[in-house]
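User: quick one, fold this
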Amino acid sequence: MKRPLYWLMITLLIVAMSELQTMGMLPDMARSLDTSTATVGMLISIYSFGMAIGGPLIAWALRLAPPKTALLGVVAAYAVLEAAVPLVHNYWWIATLRLLTGSLGGAVFGLTLTTAARLAPSPDRIASSISIVLNGLMLGAVLGLPFSHAIATAWNWQTSFVALGVIGLIIALLDIRALPALPAVSAQTSADDMQQFRSPRLWGRYLVSLLTIGATYGAFSYFTPLLEQDAGFSSNATTVALFGYGLCTVIGNNLVGRYADRHAVTLLRIGHLALTGALVVLAVFSEVPWAVLPGVLVVGLVGVSMNPALVARVVEVAGAGGLVNTVHTSVITLGVVAGSAIGGVAISTNGDTTASAAMWTGAILAVLATVVLSAQTVDRKRAHSVQVQPAQD
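Assistant:
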């Protein structure tokens, strides 16, 4: 039963590589489109906006379709639009295509996680099944930038879009045989999925996800200037350090996925504590190479790798419905955008002289995540004690 999970992982990996691909070829695209590097950089935010807003809309539209049919259709549409980018040579048309591919990418995220949950051998193995698929997200985030940079360097930036589009189409064709045909959910099940959004507990768990991912990306987005400008690493050493970070996210994701079904809260508590400590070390010792490198690796182990535990807590209160998972994806994406933006403002406020301000921002968000999680667990214990208290005469 694990083989389909690995195919879902590969599917998510290819789509996840799109999110950061423009970051790897900003100068080339700026020269070709006769615009500024900052303007081209906005394509990353546009893609993320599509994931956050368009993803749930597509998931809602496909809520009654068989999971395999919906996933294959979305991946095929993504592949076509990805490969179509070089056909237009106007920034705003490219931005429109990035918005659409981002929307499809968000839907792929939700659909792959929902399918993984349905393929789990038992309810107490959902998080471990999802963690296998999430490896695609971890690897995609790490490989997307160097892949696009290498392709643009060897040929041109247009080839990067064509390559990912063609690979995406090939994966969609292979998924036809590799993925099992699961039945579509009933209209009643879909309606029950929608009802979950009335639950304050669900939104509370979304909030923990937002703060956890926001804390991680509030720092991670500025690891390059931290390593090169503050700590004094060379460009090549920084590349190695970032690959090490990516490897740690994969290791952490698999470790968390193994135990998240039964110990999600404990893992998050440990993760938040370690994340806060690592970010404080990075902020205080930003100019000390031997302190910065292990700090970066620890953030990889306990940052985005908390995703299986975050997903497990959402599934616990709202089930593994497609719309619930896709909105969770939107929340995580908003955490990425918000964390990066707040970190950038913190650096600018401090005169753009050091990236340590972004590390402090991440640490504060990690503390807030800890506080919110603690409040939720206290309320749950209190409610449980009220339920089991014997009636008084």
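User: anything notable?
Assistant: Residues 131 and 254 are 6 Å apart (CA to CA).
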